[in-house]
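Friendly challenge for the regulars: who can give me the structure tokens for this chain first? No prize, just bragging rights.
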Amino acid sequence: MKKTLEFRAHDGEIEDIALGPDNKVVTAGRDFQCCVWQQDQLVTGLRWHENLPGIPDKAYRYQACRDSGTFLGLGTVTGSVAIHIAFSLQRLYYVKEAHGIVVTDVAFVPESQPGRELLGGHEAALLSVAVDSRCKLHLLPTRRSLPVWLLLLLCAGLIVATILLLQLAFPGFL
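First reply, four minutes later:
Bragging rights claimed.
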């Protein structure tokens, strides 16, 4: 094996590393950060004080990370578990102290036939393992979204309503 790239990702030790799609790498470090990298360039990152205000930086630390391509699963030293959208790091799911102590690993249920059966109607499933000798399954509910045709219909209705209101407010507008 040959080293192809070396860069400083964190201040201190790296707790976990995961390979994602499009040659992206996710790292969780002892510096209380979780970072998404493309080569040696920081794409985006998570910091406790920015994402969970009111919780002191030093009280929590990312311990484990996995990137399914669509989602990023995270576990912490305090037993919390979270699922974020991989490209924007928007938090979709969070359970404070899902485990009694350190989450040592997280893994998404694969999209195989048995995995799809386990998912049921959920968008994703994340397994978490902790020092408390427990393995927990976290199910991410399917996000609701409007069909495109309904969104276009609502926009058209809004435009018509705006024109009618302008006509009532300013007679002779049209």
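The chain has three helices and eleven strands. The CA atoms of residues 2 and 39 lie 15 Å apart. Your move, everyone else.
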